């Protein structure tokens, strides 16, 4: 769809979906960009923002909420009225990543606007779908807290989650590491011994 046609559809008031929508805004002195998986507009306003996550854990992580709320905030910064905006986290097993049924999730949400949790059958499993209110204050608190680190206004805060720590490339040298292991260290020493 051409950009002009998209804007015409949105401002015509009819229900319009946009996939992989580029979002861009400036928060104080920081430019922020992101790509939402999908956004739906009705009456000329954004009403639903969708993010798909693929995990064996069928409930959203806190970071999923932070990302989706940030995208809602970017819509606000772009000049959209976000007063009625909700964000949707659709979490499906990894094997469902290319499942064609994922595209039908928005219609389930739109047909059941009062539901805050849905379970949708896909070809290769089920997606748990969480519909959430967009909270501007919570979003700004999360964003300013994160930016505080990057602006060197506060020290880094170590995670308490072993999985996150294990995925970090600095886990072996980080003072706060909770997953530093002799197995990993031993493998590293063995490899460096072979290279010497």
Structural summary, described in words:
The chain is of the alpha+beta class and 196 residues long. It is built from six helices and six strands. It has helices spanning 3-12, 62-77, 105-111, 136-150, 162-167, 182-195; strands at 16-27, 30-42, 45-54, 86-92, 117-121, 126-133. Strands 1-2-3-4-6-5 form a six-stranded mixed β-sheet, with helices on both faces. α2 (62-77) crosses α4 (136-150). It is globular and about 55 Å long. The termini are far apart.
The order of strands across the largest sheet is 1-2-3-4-6-5
- Secondary-structure content class: alpha+beta
Helix content: 25-40%
The pLDDT mean sits at 88
Q: Provide the gyration radius in Å.
A: 21 Å
Overall 3D shape: globular
**Low-confidence runs:** 182-188, 190-196
> What's the N-to-C terminus distance?
58 Å
| Record field, number of beta strands | 6
Short note summarizing the structure:
The protein is α+β, with helices and mostly antiparallel strands and about 200 residues long. The chain has helices spanning about 5-10, 60-75, 105-110, 135-150, 160-165, 180-195, and strands at about 15-25, 30-40, 45-55, 85-90, 115-120, 125-135.
Question: What topology does this entry show?
Answer:
Layout lengths: L2 H10 L3 E12 L2 E13 L2 E10 L7 H16 L8 E7 L12 H7 L5 E5 L4 E8 L2 H15 L11 H6 L14 H14 L1
Parallel strand pairs: 3-4
Antiparallel strand pairs: 1-2, 2-3, 4-6, 5-6
Helix pairs in contact: 2-4
Entry keywords:
196 residues; globular; alpha+beta; 6 strands; disordered C terminus
């Amino acid at each position: 769809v051409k950009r002009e046609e998209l804007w015409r559809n949105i401002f015509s008031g009819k229900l319009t979906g946009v996939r992989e929508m580029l979002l861009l805004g400036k928060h104080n002195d920081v430019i922020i960009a992101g790509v939402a998986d999908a956004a739906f507009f009705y009456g000329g306003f954004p009403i639903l923002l969708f993010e798909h996550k693929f995990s064996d854990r069928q409930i959203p992580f806190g970071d999923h909420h932070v990302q989706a709320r940030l995208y809602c905030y970017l819509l606000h910064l772009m000049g959209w009225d976000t007063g009625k905006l909700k964000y949707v986290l659709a979490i499906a097993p990894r094997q469902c990543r290319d499942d064609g049924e994922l595209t039908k999730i928005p219609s389930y949400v739109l047909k059941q606007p009062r539901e805050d949790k849905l379970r949708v059958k896909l070809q290769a499993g089920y997606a748990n779908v969480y519909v959430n209110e967009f909270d501007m204050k919570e979003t700004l608190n999360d964003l300013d807290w994160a930016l505080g680190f990057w602006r060197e206004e506060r020290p880094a805060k170590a995670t308490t989650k072993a999985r996150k720590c294990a995925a970090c490339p600095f886990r072996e040298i980080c003072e706060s590491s909770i997953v530093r292991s002799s197995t990993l260290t031993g493998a590293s020493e063995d490899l460096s011994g072979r290279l010497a």
